[in-house]
Amino acid sequence: MATNDAPPRWDRRMQQRLAHGEAAALGELYDRFASLVHGLAHRVLGDEPAADALTCDVFAHIWEHPDAYDPHEGPMRSWVAALTHRLAVQRLRTTETAALARGGEGTTEDLERRVHRASAAARADYIVQSMPTPLRAALERAYFQRRDYRQAAADLGITEDEARRRLRLGLQLLSTAHHTGLSGVPPEHGGAR
To answer: Structure pTM?
Structure first.
């Protein structure tokens, strides 16, 4: 996701502050992204205490490796989400593999299916949270309120063509949740790229 544009000022400044060991920067980062991190971790792990622990691990990793984020490769929000995703999938694989080794039910194929489902669900959640508000509003009308494009257009005060366009774009974005762009491979020590 590299771009030629200059990274957003907040992302660049936050990375610099973290690299200088500014504890207040970590607090600010936590305030901004803790709910995102916890939500993604919970979606993958399906367990509140495990999500709490992973949230702490993600922010500890960021504190210990502030240079792992490169503002020129994309927004910090996306990087934090990708780091969370990778660490959560790694944790899920580790705990589920240990359960299988202790004689738990299932096979390694079942484990991989569970990991894939949890991973795709977490990506879908992130995509919905990150998509532009007009697209999300159209999808919410169609999915949660069971409105067709005509009803969604009336609800949103837009043309029917615009409602169809927003629904199509929103669904196209959601369809990428099953792609393996964010792999379940854990990051290298010290990096998350």
So the answer is: 0.67
- Two structure tokens written together for 132: 């532009």
* Residue 92 structure tokens: 């899920």
Nearest residue to 139 (alpha-carbon basis) of 107, 164, 106, 114: 164
Please give the pLDDT value at position 190: 37
> Residue 30: what pLDDT?
96
CB distance 42 to 118 below 8 Å: no
Q: In which band, very low, low, confident or very high, does the pLDDT at 186 lie, cut at 50, 70 and 90?
A: very low
Nearest to 54 by CA among 94, 22, 27, 10: 94
Give the dihedral of Cα atoms 86, 92, 93, 96; nearest 10 deg.
Answer: 180
Which band of pLDDT confidence, cut at 50, 70 and 90, is reported for residue 188? Answer: very low
